[in-house]
Amino acid sequence: MARIAIDMDNVMADITTHYLTYYEAAHGIKLDSETLQGVPEGEALPEGMVRQFLNTPGFFRTAPVMPGSQEVIKALCEKYEVFIVSAAMEFPLSLQEKLEWLNEHYPFISWKNIVFCGSKTIVEADYMIDDHDKNLRYFKGERLLFTAPHNINLTDYKRVNNWEEVAEELLATAPAVL
């Protein structure tokens, strides 16, 4: 059975919208997501704000679910061996919160298929869906870049803009289950 590694932040969880919501709550200023287009993720908000949010208790636990991800990932689980792979070690608070978030929103994913790591260079799969070049660059399988504001200018990978496109790419051509 073919294996898929799926990132969490800005792939399953809408972290960009979450940044904007946190920023508005903290500063009373509503930013449009268009202002983030092409800006590196850590530089999208005033200095230090992204890192501050990522270290705020509850940030990862309350992230909104990316539209369509639950249904498509559930369908992928029927045709592929699916692993959720998140480089979560940099933000220790995220470990428990991400696990709780996955259990709430994706209860069909077994704990055995969740990988929290520091570097995704160790990941071996047939496909990887991720929003960061640093994670896709060294991956040996088929790389799918999930569109996020910070990666809008990347052209080195096959791009998927939403979960409907992931379904078109991977469910229409899924290998037969043995």
Automatic annotation (TrEMBL):
The active site is at D7 (nucleophile), D9 (proton donor). GO terms for biological process: pyrimidine deoxyribonucleotide catabolic process. Gene3D superfamilies: Deoxyribonucleotidase, domain 2 (1.10.40.40), HAD superfamily/HAD-like (3.40.50.1000). InterPro entries: 5'(3')-deoxyribonucleotidase, HAD-like_sf, HAD_sf. Transmembrane segments: none annotated. It comes from Chitinophaga flava. Belongs to the 5'(3')-deoxyribonucleotidase family. PANTHER family: 5'(3')-DEOXYRIBONUCLEOTIDASE (PTHR16504:SF4). One of its GO terms (molecular function) is 5'-nucleotidase activity. This is 5'(3')-deoxyribonucleotidase.
